[in-house]
Design goal:
binds aspartic acid, alpha/beta, 5-stranded antiparallel beta sheet, 8-stranded mixed beta sheet, 15 strands, 444 residues, 38% helix, 19% strand
Length: 444
Amino acid sequence: MNSFNNGTIKTVKFGGSSLADAECLKKVATIIKADASRRYVVPSAPGKRFKEDEKVTDMLYALHRAAAEGGAAFEETYEKIYTRFDGIVKGLGIDFPLAEELEIIKKNLLAGYGSDYAASRGEYLNGKILAAYIGFAFVDPATAVAFKENGAFDAGKTDELLGKALAEHEYAVVPGFYGALPDGAIKTFSRGGSDVTGSLVAKAVNADIYENWTDVSGFLMADPRIVDSPKQIRTITYRELRELSYMGATVLHEDAIFPVRKIGIPINIRNTNIPEEPGTMIVAKAEVDAENLITGIAGRRGFSAIIIEKDMMNQEIGFGRRVLDVFEKFGISFEHLPSGIDTLSVVVESKSLEKVENIIEELYKATEADHIYVENEIALIAVVGRGMIQARGTAARVFAAISHAGVNVKMIDQGSSELNIIVGVKEEDFEKTIKAIYEIFDNE
Ligand code: ASP
């Protein structure tokens, strides 16, 4: 029986692009073997080998659809999947019972197994192949990652089952993305969910670090499609990451943060193709670096503001509640609520405003407002940095940069934690604004 407290333990997760073919798997094996503390490995299914390529997970969803429809499409897709895995097995030169494994999958799908089962087989097969190649034990998450009857993830049961299962192995591969319902049926997380499995495994083995290997060297300070070669973020806190991810920066599945955050296991985003780069460290608390006041800038288009004006609004108790009641009634969640003395704006995603006329009518009824109107095509930009709380003048610099760029600010919101400043601008000024803010902080 293995205990988890003998030396450093690393949980290492590899994304689909890091496991797309045999050459990739060889690179991954080298990374794993380079450090004996990389003991628990969580693989995704093979991803794209080139831009127009198909992910195995997508092929498996298609296989499931074809199984229901019948016809030639099933055999065609099955062959494609077979060829993909066969290339990996042959390229690695291992003895692996691929035909038998795929035969079982085929039989189950034709017998009516669900789409979650189908999709999960990419991780399952890749995990088995990788385990055979590097000589690690294979632990099937169908026996260790638990979902409740209603389909919700069961954190308590998973922690217990996964902890027990992994304690029996000093080195193991646990495929990402799926687990099982109480009746044994396979259930997956949402797309990209292998990140979540990695986090669960890290928690269950009380890892010192969760390394998440992908095809980029971590997070960048801004979107490289907008800013030319933005700097890499070396260290980011969980909270900063939440803010940036919410505003559009993606590398990690949203739900992957919570299990490790609770017990303070850092996540290190690394690049499988450039393993010597340190990547980005995601931690609970980090020093404030006077030279890097801003951690990152991210933003999204597609917001609208509903602006409500009423004389003496500021003296009316319950005004805000009446406004928000209307939004609640329409099932709309709001993003920001900037207010003036006699005005209140509710910023929401534009796509939630299908019934905008009815909403306005209800708002007039509920508030007896003087004037209500809507402004569309707003972009929100978040400037995020744990250093802002200590530094004076950060907001002044942000706004100076925006005004120099000739952009008119529609809305300002500084989170009460002083972790971010959010500005609303016209969508047409979105990129210009991000560039201007980045440049002013980049010269430090
Ligand atoms: N293979 C799954 C997907 O493509 C899960 C993952 O890669 O994390 O979404």
